[in-house]
Design a protein that fits this description.
five-stranded mixed beta sheet; 14 helices; five-stranded antiparallel beta sheet; single chain
């Protein structure tokens, strides 16, 4: 019978050759070792009854990211037996898998907790490591004296070599950096499945309010309780509603910070826009740090959000409700074999809507009168009473556009 270490070695080999570790693949190394394959660091975080969260082991030893132990073992993890968390530190992405078991140990106060994680310059690469990290987290709580040899081998296997590495810059060059903005690599439109679908199921027509806020690059904070992985998925799903095949300006995508905690307060004070999540209730009192807090299914504007007149963008219109109803009908028509296509259905909807909207705004900005009309919005399948949103979006990207004034601007819905 194969040992657990044999299983992990096979998993390691699979990971090196495929983004899907479930499918058997040849065990030879890839011909070219790309940027997506690099692991910048690997670590184990434990909970010490005297010291609290502690980095038990890390590689390389010179890895120095202050506060890593509070990102990798998020606040509230003690209330669940397993979870995972995504985060961003110093321009790299992190994924940590957490496990907790009960133990007969007075020194450990009856419970043992470990988080095992990696840091990567590519967000896309993180999902490749999740199954391995989850297995190692379980091993670390089940066998606390097992050591870190397997983790060390995993790290070494994901380092560039002179013969196979395709050199790329430390950070993607399309990450737009301006004063007061986070240095965050751009997330590619390739992702773990289910994030956008879960977002649409949870928020229904309110997902279009989130979509508008994301496109307007507001400071959006999801507040909740573990599982933290679900909160991170909502950050990611929200980010992906902004997907398009083109851009209006050099601003790039909204920075996605994923999990944040009290140690990030000073950093967040400097940010003009972001998507993030937290489990720390102190943020409910720090209303200067965000424009919008999403708590449960409730979208709450902070004082700054109200001052920025975001109420109309948060309001769910009749057109929003109709769009969601239409999407649900299309989803229900998928066959059993096409159920995995739900994510693609939602993804394509937002990408198409963004492409049409961006194209319209560029056309209007280049026209003689630069006049945006409600009819033009309706022609591309959007709510004509979203004209205020479209005008604000143009302003965010530095486009000069004048907008038709609705007959009754207090009504942010259409009558069809």
């Amino acid at each position: 019978m194969a040992s657990a270490e044999d299983d992990d070695q096979l998993l390691l080999q699979r990971d090196l050759t495929s983004s899907d570790p479930i499918v058997e693949q040849p065990t030879t190394s890839p011909a070219v070792f790309s940027f997506d394959d690099v692991v910048s660091g690997i670590f184990v975080v434990s909970f010490d009854t005297h010291k609290g969260n502690t980095v038990e082991w890390k590689m390389p030893e010179a890895l120095n990211l202050s506060g890593l132990e509070f990102k990798a073992m998020a606040s509230g993890f003690h209330t669940v037996s397993d979870d995972f968390v995504l985060f961003n530190m110093g321009g790299v992405y992190g994924l940590s898998c957490y496990r907790k078991i009960s133990v007969d140990s007075a020194e450990e106060r009856g419970v043992r907790m470990r988080s095992v994680g990696v840091l990567c310059p590519s967000f896309y690469a993180l999902c490749r490591h999740q199954e391995f990290l989850a297995r190692e987290a379980q091993r670390q709580v089940d066998e606390p004296t097992c050591g870190h040899a397997q983790l060390e081998r995993y790290y070494q296997a994901h380092q560039p070599s002179s013969s196979s590495y395709a050199p790329q810059s430390p950070l993607p060059t399309d990450a737009a950096v301006t004063p007061g903005q986070a240095v965050v690599p751009r997330i590619q439109a390739r992702h773990p499945p289910g994030c956008i679908s879960e977002l649409c199921y949870t928020y229904g027509a309110k997902v279009f309010a989130l979509w508008r806020l994301v496109l307007l690059r507001k400071r959006i904070l999801f507040m909740g309780h573990p599982p933290v992985g679900m909160l991170c998925g909502r950050v990611y799903g929200s980010h992906m509603t902004s997907t398009s095949s083109t851009h209006l300006s050099s601003l790039g995508d909204i920075p996605s910070l994923f999990y944040v905690n009290v140690n990030d307060i000073s950093f967040l004070q400097q940010q003009r826009s972001y998507l993030a999540c937290t489990t720390e209730t102190i943020f409910e009192t720090k209303t200067n740090l965000y424009d919008v807090m999403v708590r449960g299914e409730e979208i709450i504007l902070s004082a700054s959000g109200k001052q920025a007149s975001l109420e109309s963008f948060v309001h769910v219109s009749r057109a929003d409700q109709q769009r969601m109803a239409d999407l649900n009908i299309r989803r229900s028509q998928l066959s059993a074999e096409e159920e995995s296509g739900e994510e693609e259905l939602f993804m394509n909807f937002f990408q198409d809507a963004n492409n049409r909207l961006y194209s319209l705004l560029r056309t209007v900005a280049a026209s003689a009168d630069r006049k945006l009309t409600m009819a033009a919005l309706e022609d591309i399948g959007l709510d004509p009473y979203d004209i205020g949103f479209a005008r604000s979006l143009a302003e965010v990207h530095g486009l000069e556009v004048s907008a038709q004034t609705p007959v009754c601007p207090c009504l942010n819905f259409s009558f069809f």
